[in-house]
Design a protein that fits this description.
Largest sheet of chain A: none
Number of helices of chain A: 8
Structural class of chain A: mainly alpha
Oligomer: heterodimer
Distance between the termini of chain A: 46 Å
Mean pLDDT of chain A: 79
Largest sheet of chain B: 15 strands, antiparallel
Number of helices of chain B: 11
Radius of gyration of chain A: 19 Å
Number of strands of chain B: 21
Shape of chain A: flat
Structural class of chain B: alpha+beta
Distance between the termini of chain B: 103 Å
Shape of chain B: elongated
Helix content of chain A: 55-70%
Strand content of chain B: 35-45%
Number of strands of chain A: 0
Order of helices and strands of chain A: HHHHHHHH
Mean pLDDT of chain B: 69
Strand content of chain A: under 5%
Low-confidence stretches of chain A: 95-100, 168-178
Largest interface: A-B, 58 and 51 residues
């Protein structure tokens, strides 16, 4: 698996088609991130597209190619805010006539996505990469250039926070030896 | 290990990241500790939930939509620039400058730049800057290398020997190619001089005996290898539309910050035999091209690509007049072209046209011809000799165009038999001019001396209202 830096460099080095690899790698992650924030798949998809297009045109401005992922999430947050403002404005003028596309049949776990969206940045990024980006812990460690132990510990803490927020207490952690 | 120490490892246990001894220790601990068992089952439940939700996103396919939008936005940006340029008439001015009279090899540079810089995104160099630079060009020189590559980009890539050399041009209409041998010594020189309708080309080849063998011709470029290729590339570029090129970012070449543009044949939808990619790198400060890299399919050999690099491009550096001097006694030939637009444009009922591979079935016939609207007679004069060539342009209908286009696409460089009414029969390769029209050479003084026929006679004999 080539690194993000490799593909970013390739794009900048005259192979724009390599941007496809980054899209494939992060489209699910990005969607999950946005669904969590917006609670709506169609809106999330619109914003995800816009985000990736902006990323493409802005690649040369990305200072650290290996930070593509957090950079992309940052752009998506800005796009989401802009869209939100635009939508507000449109709603004000169009009232209840605002367009509504049918929701897709696929079942998304909105409460889960919302809770992930509320996690601290680093926790959220790891959860997204692990379960929505289909990265193994080892791959994440390699990609972020961190020890595997740090990744598993952080993920473990992220789990604890997630479970707590989802309303499931982490259980009585006092040891009960039978 | 106490329970807290186990707790730290439970997540790694669920993730399957522990080594065997740790795994066994935890499994043993879980048998006796219900709290840790709860913890594990809670973690597993959450993991399942996350995995299931992750799978729900498997349908997300943004790739095509994103790439469609990238192409659309680039097109949109281009149209704005094109419209602006059109309004200020820059395009027309360029086409009227002497620059267009450069040798094909020189023009390619400009063609490339014009073809590509139109696709500029917003960045430090604007299209107008570049146009300005091109308009002011008086001299240009660069170093070139031409390398044959088998199966580029694949594991079985094989790079052939390179040819290299230098190129110089000076406005109006002077250019010089030099090919170098492996020691960097000149082994071939081609000088082409253009002046209005007059043009002349000289080829100097260094023989094995160390003598210079000189050939002079006129009208048509002699060095088929070099000039044909570059001219071809240039013509190809003219077909590039706004949807087809991409800005490919910035880099540094020899300490100069440059912006690049690229087009690929797949995106270009180009006609064969061009098939490949082209990159142009432009100085961000001065808006002039620094380097051009092209990789395209060699004629007739599908797996061989030519890698053509033009670098160290110098603009407006004074060039020695001697570079373009003709040897004594060489005359410049004159070429004149007279078009005639026919008043009748339809083939008479009994006239037949047959274009196809020898011994095969026809690719197009008279039924595929929409009209015959014009012809030209050109006369070349050189050293008291005259040579005539009469050409008729046949405009194909959509059907015919499609047939010829798809045939030439799959039969690169194949010679097609052209049979006009059983009276003019010859073979030739139909290349990129496969647009809506093709050409029939009615007569050529060397070849069809006895059949000489004027355009007026052609109209009378073969065309109807």
């Amino acid at each position: 698996m080539s690194s993000d830096k490799y593909y970013v460099d390739r794009c900048l080095d005259g192979h724009p088609d390599d941007f496809r690899h980054l899209v494939r790698r992060y489209q699910k992650v990005l969607m999950a991130h946005l669904v969590g924030q917006l609670g709506n798949v169609n809106e999330a998809e619109e914003i995800a597209q816009e985000t990736l297009v902006r990323c493409y045109f802005g690649l040369s401005k990305l200072k650290k190619p290996k930070s593509f992922f957090p950079w992309m999430l940052g752009i998506s947050n800005r796009v989401a805010k802009e869209q939100y403002r635009n939508r507000q404005r449109r709603r004000e003028t169009l009232g209840a006539l605002a367009e509504k596309k049918p929701e897709r049949r696929v079942q998304y776990d909105y409460p889960l996505a919302r809770t992930i969206a509320q996690l601290p940045d680093f926790y959220r990024e790891l959860i997204l990469l692990r379960y929505y980006g289909d990265h193994s812990c080892k791959e994440i460690a390699k990609q972020l250039d961190m020890p595997l132990g740090t990744i598993t510990k952080t993920l473990s803490r992220a789990y604890a926070v997630l479970r707590e927020k989802l309303g499931k207490p982490a259980g009585n952690m006092e040891c009960e030896v039978q | 290990m106490n329970c807290n120490e186990y707790k730290d490892k439970l997540f790694a246990y669920v993730e399957g990241l522990l080594d065997d001894s740790d795994k066994e220790a935890i499994a043993a601990h879980l048998k006796v500790c219900s709290a840790c068992r709860n913890e594990v089952s809670g973690t597993e439940q959450l993991q399942e939930r996350l995995v299931a939700d992750g799978a729900a996103y498997a349908e997300s396919d943004l790739e095509n939509a994103v790439f469609d939008r990238i192409v659309r936005e680039q097109t949109f940006k281009l149209r704005k620039i094109e419209t602006a340029n059109y309004k200020i008439g820059i395009w027309r001015n360029i086409m009227n400058t002497k620059v267009t009279k450069f040798a094909a090899a020189a023009v390619i540079i400009i063609g490339v730049v014009m073809g590509y810089l139109m696709f500029r995104d917003t960045s430090s160099v604007s299209w107008a800057d570049v146009v300005e630079q091109i308009r002011m060009v008086k001299t240009m020189s660069y170093e070139w290398t031409l390398t044959g590559v088998m199966n580029p980009g694949s594991e079985s890539e094989q790079i052939g020997e390179s040819q290299r050399g230098r190129f110089y041009s000076q406005d109006p209409g002077k250019c010089r190619w030099e090919s170098l041998d492996e020691n960097g010594e000149i082994r071939q020189i081609i000088i082409s001089l253009f002046s209005g309708n007059k043009r002349s080309t000289m080829v100097y080849n260094l023989t094995r005996e160390g003598k210079w063998d000189i050939n002079t011709t006129s009208g048509i470029a002699v060095n088929k290898d070099e000039l044909y290729r570059t001219e071809h590339l240039w013509k190809t570029l003219e077909k590039v539309t706004s949807e087809q090129a991409m800005e490919i970012g910035e880099k540094v070449i020899d300490g100069v910050a440059v912006v690049g543009f690229m087009a690929t044949s797949k995106k270009l939808g180009l006609l064969t035999p061009f098939n490949g990619t082209l990159e142009v790198w432009v100085d961000q400060d001065t808006a002039v091209p620094i380097q051009i890299e092209a990789e395209y399919q060699d004629d007739g050999q599908k797996d061989v690509f030519m890698r053509h690099v033009m670098k160290n491009i110098q603009w407006n550096t004074p060039l020695d007049e001697k570079l373009f001097q003709l040897p004594e006694g060489v005359e410049i030939s004159e070429r004149e072209s007279r078009p005639l637009f026919f008043t009748r444009t339809q083939l008479k009922d009994n006239v037949t046209v047959w274009v196809g591979p020898r011994g095969g079935s026809p690719v197009v016939t008279e039924k595929d011809i929409a009209k015959v609207s014009c012809g030209t007679t050109s006369i070349e004069r050189e050293g008291g000799n005259e040579r005539y060539r009469t050409i008729i342009y046949f405009d194909l209908n959509e059907d015919g165009e499609e047939k010829l286009r798809s045939h030439t696409k799959t039969h690169i460089n194949e010679k097609l038999l052209i049979d006009f009414n059983g009276e003019i029969i010859y073979e030739r390769t139909i290349k990129t001019e496969v647009g809506p029209r093709f050409i029939v050479v009615l007569c050529e003084s060397e070849i069809f001396e006895e059949h000489e026929l004027s355009l007026k006679e052609f109209e009378e004999n073969y065309l109807k209202e």
